[in-house]
Amino acid sequence: MDLRNIAIIAHVDHGKTTLVDELLKQSGVFRDNQAVAERAMDSNDLERERGITIFAKPTSVEWKNTRINIVDTPGHADFGGEVERILSMVDGVVLLVDAAEGPMPQTKFVTSKALALGLRPIVVVNKVDKPDGEPDRALDECFDLFASLDATDEQLDFPTMYASGRNGWADMELDGPRKDLTAMFDLILEHVPAPAQISRKGEPFQMLATTLGSDPFLGRMLTGRVEAGTLKAGENIKALSRDGTLIENFRATKIMAFRGLAQQEIEVAEAGDIVSVAGMTKSTVADSLLAPSVNEPLPAQPIDPPTITVTFGINDSPLAGRDGKKVQSRVIRDRLMKEAEGNVAIKISDTPGGEAFEVAGRGELQMGVLIENMRREGFELSISRPQVLFQEIDGVRHEPVEEVTIDVDDEYSGVVIEKLTSTRKGELAEMRPAGAGKTRIIAHVPSRGLIGYHGEFLTDTRGTGVLNRVFHDWAPHKGSIPGRRAGVLISMENGTSVAYALWNLEDRGKMMIGAQADVYQGMIIGEHSRENDLEVNPLKGKKLTNVRASGTDDAVRLTTPITLSLEEAIAYIDNDELVEVTPNSIRMRKRHLDPHERKRKAREAQ
User: Fold this and answer.
1) 176 pairs with which residues across the strands?
2) Which one of 88, 485, 549, 567 is at 20 to 30 Å from 112 when CA atoms are compared?
3) What's the predicted TM-score (pTM) here?
4) Residue 344 clears pLDDT 80, i.e. is over it
5) pLDDT over threshold 50, residue 606
6) How far apart are CA 31 and CA 175, in angstroms?
7) How far apart, in Å, are the Cα atoms of 550 and each of 543, 547, 553, 554?
8) Comparing C-alpha atoms, which of 461, 438, 309, 296 is closest to residue 386?
9) Cα-flanking dihedrals φ and ψ of residue 555, to 5°?
10) What domains does the chain contain, in order, with CATH numbers?
11) How many CA atoms lie within 13 Å of 362's alpha carbon, on the beta-carbon side?
């Protein structure tokens, strides 16, 4: 059987996973009466809840006696590390572009990686049946994007298709029959070359591990493309690190291939195919799995460095240990090290004292997904505000700058530009009308200025704006950027909040807790209406009296408290505050300060 390896790349929400659903259905992977969930490739609970792809996952279909291995990739910039690894496994990419939005920041990021590897893309303009779709403009913007990324003449001569992934059709012409995906399958067979590795079947076995997984029965599993030779189940092989150090010798106990949504055991893995190998105990992502006679590791693609860091510590609040079972620093460290092993985009380091850990990654969403997974596993954590990582370049301190693409109603464009450029030290790169009364703004903004901005942006644009960001470059440090403007309301007592007390505090600011909530000294219970922090008593009940008079017994009606999501809470806190995360609760609190530190901060405030 012939073989093709492709990846589907696109910006978030441009329809990758929906298109893969239709490719699987129309290739006959599912039975006619089989119940299949929507976005079948999003198998993780968080992926289904948030409607985004977080982990790159391979699948395969058969078409005209050819097996097509398809890799569904994440669309969010924070998970770009997944895409960078996966592209080394494929021989072609299908670039999906929304007909209304055109190429977006993540489109640019993943396309630059694909072009640098010499891959020739197929451009599919998706959602052309949307009323606001402009496929011709989207196609022109794709060509301009390719040219700006120094694509070769061969890459610029890309084939184009028009599609509706949700309705399951793709055609070479905009006014085609709009019936099914036959034209897309045929174009993939014609345009994507067969793996060059097929000609190396006679050589000793070589494979580069690109993703790490685990199976409750088979244990540790590494997935990658077989670069040369064949591997039979039960054969002895070895693992070398990137620098050629021997990690372990082991027996390949099982070889699993991707067949539809499931993995199927096969006896022999051949050059060019994408497979998972079980049997190792130590080897991990970017290691080379080789026959005993091979002593040179395979080259691994370098991964872009992390740009932000967050401190993970033990939960030492008065309410610690009530919800979660995993509270010790040793258990937290083991879990983080396990995460870093399979996710090459994050780095873990210990802080002095060993009670907390610095986790460096790509963005707030990536950190939020890791924390959410840990709290669901029963962990309790305290999380610091994200800090930007700096670099020394030629003796000058540099900071990461992100390219921000914003689509916003025309009436709100002024306030958005004002916040990005004057307050957050950004530079306006482009501004143009996007149709339908909207303006597209592209700006280069320091990563520091974007921490905590998204909530403010949604308020400024009345929830109608769309903001996308991706790492752009390193730039000289741009000076201080103001943080959160408002102060917070801090509980001065331990106990259970009382409705009457919260009602009386409402003129002081917005509440973040309701009545009958557990509170403790130092816990943040609301946002102050002024810039300073204020300690308040949420436990103060109404004085009881046997005198009744008109107007003294009014019913207490509380305003609905603000509820922050995990990512919003992490972005909201200031440098002297922490987010307390447990399986059932997300709270914010002030750091525990010793008396000398408290006096120093009081003097600074005055």
Assistant:
1) none
2) 567
3) 0.78
4) no
5) no
6) 31
7) 16, 10, 7, 9
8) 309
9) -70, 140
10) 2-194 (3.40.50.300), 198-290 (2.40.30.10), 391-476 (3.30.70.240), 488-573+587-605 (2.40.50.250)
11) 23
Q: Find the distance separating the first CA and the last CA of the chain, reported in whole Å.
A: 77
- What integer is the mean pLDDT of 287-302? 85
- Residue of 512, 504, 509, 513 whose CA lies nearest to 530: 509
SS (H, E, C) 460-483: HCCCCCEEEEEEEEEEECCCCCCC
Dihedral sign for Cα atoms in the order 266, 269, 275, 278: positive
8 A C-beta contact, residue 561 and residue 588: no
Backbone angles phi, psi at 361, to 5 degrees: -155, -165
Distance CA 520, CA 540 (A): 14
pLDDT of residue 44: 59
Of 344, 301, 480, 340, the C-alpha closest to 399 is 480
The pLDDT value recorded for residue 236 is 92
Q: How many helices (H) and strands (E) does the chain have?
A: 15, 35
- Name which of 140, 119, 120, 137 is nearest 128 in CA terms: 137
| Amino acid at position 37, single letter | A
